[in-house]
């Protein structure tokens, strides 16, 4: 004869297996560069340029441009034409 504890554990195990085998809906991020998050790369580059240029670089404007344009123009800290809109003059 099977005890009540054994039946209870069996039912719990069955419920656990059924719940964990349920299909999961995934919502992957945009993968235009082979799996990389382009907006994240863009914002990371903005932060790097801010570290390099300090007060001369408007990092928040750069990050806003990354979000607004969905990372289509990634700033390169060594290419002044790509970061020119975010540079300011210090007096």
Automatic annotation (TrEMBL):
GO terms for cellular component: extracellular region. Keywords: Disulfide bond, Hormone, Neuropeptide, Secreted, Signal. Neuropeptide that triggers the performance of ecdysis behaviors at the end of a molt. It triggers adult behavior patterns: larval, pupal and adult ecdysis, and plasticization during the molt. GO terms for biological process: ecdysis, chitin-based cuticle; neuropeptide signaling pathway. The lineage of its organism: Eukaryota, Metazoa, Ecdysozoa, Arthropoda, Hexapoda. Coiled coil: none annotated. InterPro entries: Eclosion. Belongs to the insect eclosion hormone family. It is found in: Secreted. This is Eclosion hormone. One of its GO terms (molecular function) is ecdysis-triggering hormone activity. Residues 1-26 form the signal peptide.
């Amino acid at each position: 004869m099977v005890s009540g504890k054994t039946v209870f554990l069996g039912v719990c195990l069955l419920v656990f297996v059924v719940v964990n085998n349920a299909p999961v809906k995934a919502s992957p991020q945009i993968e235009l560069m082979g799996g990389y998050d382009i907006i994240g790369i863009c914002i990371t580059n903005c932060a790097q340029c801010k570290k390099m240029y300090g007060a001369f670089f408007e990092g928040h404007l750069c990050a806003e441009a990354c979000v607004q344009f969905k990372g289509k123009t990634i700033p390169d800290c060594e290419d002044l034409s790509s970061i020119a809109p975010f540079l300011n003059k210090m007096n």
